[in-house]
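> tool_call: predict_assembly(chains=two)
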Amino acid sequence: MKIALHEVTRRFGAFTALDNVNLDIHSGELVALLGPSGSGKTTLLRIIAGLDWPDQGEVHFDGEDALSRSVGERNVGFVFQNYALFRHMTVFENVAFGLRARPRRLRPTEAAIRARVNQLLELVQLGPLGQRLPNQLSGGQRQRIALARALAIEPRILLLDEPFGALDAKVRKELRRWLRQLHEEIHVTSVFVTHDQEEALELADRVVVLAKGRVQQIGTPEEVYEQPQSAFVHHFIGESLSVPVTINAGGVHFAGRRLDLDPHGLSDGEASLFIRPYEVTVVPESGGAMLDGVVKRVHGFGPARRLEIALREGDREHFIEVSAPRHEAIGIGQHVGLRPRAYRLFASTADRTQGA
Amino acid sequence: MSDQPLTLPGYPSRTGYPPGMRAFRTPSMVLRQVKPASDARADPTPMRWAIIGITIAFLTLFVVIPLINVFAQAFSKGLEAYVAAIGNADALAAIKLTLIVAAISVGLNLVFGIVAAWAITKYEFAGKSLLITVMDLPFSVSPVIAGLVFVLLFGAQGYLGPWLQAHDITVIFALPGIVLATVFVTFPFVARELIPLMREQGTLEEEAALSLGASGLRTFFKVTLPNVKWALLYGVLLCNARAMGEFGAVSVVSGHVRGETNTMPLHVEILYNEYQFMAAFAVASLLALLALVTLVAKVMLEGRAAKE
């Protein structure tokens, strides 16, 4: 099932949750909607499901208008953030709910329902727990029941809202791997919402980065990580060092000094210099055309040793943290130079794409 | 080797005492815990007893003794007289009317209460907080006023009176008026029990049911209703107790026609005013019994709800 969103806008009073969002999700894909809280990712998911409606825009499933259909008619499996299991029903009845709710002529026989539910409980590895109530299960088990319940209706699309949000780190990792495997087996078009970049990058075929109701970037995990197209994405995904710089007369300037960096064709004005912490070399000399600063703290030891360096700009200090060089003895208070092996520049005013 | 402390018999343990020594030291420490010389947190003992005593004495004087007295007076002339007083035609008519009124009002308020709670907890709309405030009106308004409102509306001199008379419909001094007044005073019970619970539960389970293809009705009966059933029963119970016991509002609209428009509370008053104390208490004992049954059922329901 292909999902296409066209210029979708959703407002709640004065707050714009989604601002002109365009998105195409291919059949069989596993897509992550990644963004900080308030970025509109859950609203987007609910609009796809039919639990919320856009003020403007269109939603199509395989070219068919989805907005003219209710949530029940769209045949989507929705896994809620806190699972929303029916608390007074057994696990078995929870999973069977969607099948029993079908109109009589489409409803499977009782024997077929039993077989299907048991098969699903096996699939989520909770076969023996059918007669338990939801509050007798652990968080990870509830999550899997919620998934089995959603899969019972043979959904054309599987939607998951922060599927691992309420779980502890270890269970989260296991379930993540398990969900990826499951997706490879059943191959249903799936969209999940997360604020955890690690989750999105590890699990998804493609990642949609959202902020303030707008799509910032869509790409494979590799693309959004290696080629961030805006300061926001660079900052949000992976670790970043950023320093405010000025582009002037074809040069990059920091604190009034020209650095030996190329402005990558960025026009004159304020900009941000972004560097990944592992792509910078710290050298014991300073001054000249290098970024430089004073070591304020040293943490860790051996290969994990990191330096916290203060860069001075007038009377302001910018703190950045980088890996310490292996074979140089560098101590607190020492002046050091920073030589980026790769970097990106983004103009401060607009999120224009410029980079190396 | 494990890193357990080595405690061979006869050798000092790591704490420096031989193993037996610790057992020897324990009793004095226990004693000190049991008998604190003075604990700043606790109120002095006489004060505690005084407060508990006052509470019990007050409750006994104002609740327990009067309640016992109801039954004592009811049976003061023996079981036969008691049965005769209740078997009296007017008393039976009052009991029947009370049951009919309670059944209709509770039925109506069950439906109204669920609808109102649903509207308030599942939808967003302008004027919602006003609605919640208005819903509490029956609690804050004197029941007499509730009765008068209906007399002014539907009575012979009321706004709708002439029209009702022309169509030969009697509301005031008849069953419809009594039901109206009772519905008014008992309206909040069901809704007020449901609203906090339904608000806490939110709409996620309903959304889940809808996303699984369930119809609105199925969602309501299979998901919403089972989730609130204990609160609903509790609300119905309170609603019923009040419906049967309501005096003020019903008194205004009933007209006190013996054997026709007298409910049990009104019948008790009439008997009492006629100095038929024993008979008055006999009918009153039924209402008191209702109160006791309500109380027991309430405790049981709360137990069930807490378990789930």
